[in-house]
């Protein structure tokens, strides 16, 4: 089905959109907001760098459609049905699969923003050497 603005998204375009969407910064911005035009303007600008010409509305529509499709496949799977599937399920599951758990435990979320101590120690060693 053609979305608003016309032409179908190619596999590469969807992959690029998902790659940008998987950015933790973008996810955090999308998590807490409904008025997200500004965020999708950023997404569209980043797609432009990949040579993909989509406006923010097309990005938002595609995002919503992918999210909706993912949720319906996920709930079908949770109820034991394997008949429903979608092309980018695994990629989306990596992004969306943790969201429900993350929102349930907001207290853990604050700690997850800090890097684990071993990564900081490692980077110090790298800069010394």
From TrEMBL:
Superkingdom per UniProt: Eukaryota
Domain Myb/SANT-like DNA-binding: 7-95
Compositional bias segments (type: Basic and acidic residues): 105-129
Pfam families given in the database record: Myb_DNA-bind_4
Region span, Disordered: 100-129
The protein's name in its UniProt record: ZSC29 protein
GN (gene name): Zscan29
């Amino acid at each position: 089905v053609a979305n608003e603005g016309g032409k179908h998204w190619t596999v590469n375009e969807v992959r690029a959109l998902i790659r940008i969407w998987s950015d933790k910064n973008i996810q955090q911005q999308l998590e807490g907001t409904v008025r997200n035009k500004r965020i999708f303007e950023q997404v569209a600008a980043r797609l432009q760098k990949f040579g993909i010409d989509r406006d923010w509305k097309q990005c938002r529509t595609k995002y919503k459609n992918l999210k909706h499709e993912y949720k319906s496949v996920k709930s079908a799977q949770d109820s034991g049905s394997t008949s429903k599937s979608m092309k980018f399920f695994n990629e989306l599951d990596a992004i969306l699969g943790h969201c429900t758990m993350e929102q349930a435990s907001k207290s853990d979320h604050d700690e997850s923003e800090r890097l684990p101590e071993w990564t900081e120690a490692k980077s110090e060693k790298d800069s010394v050497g």
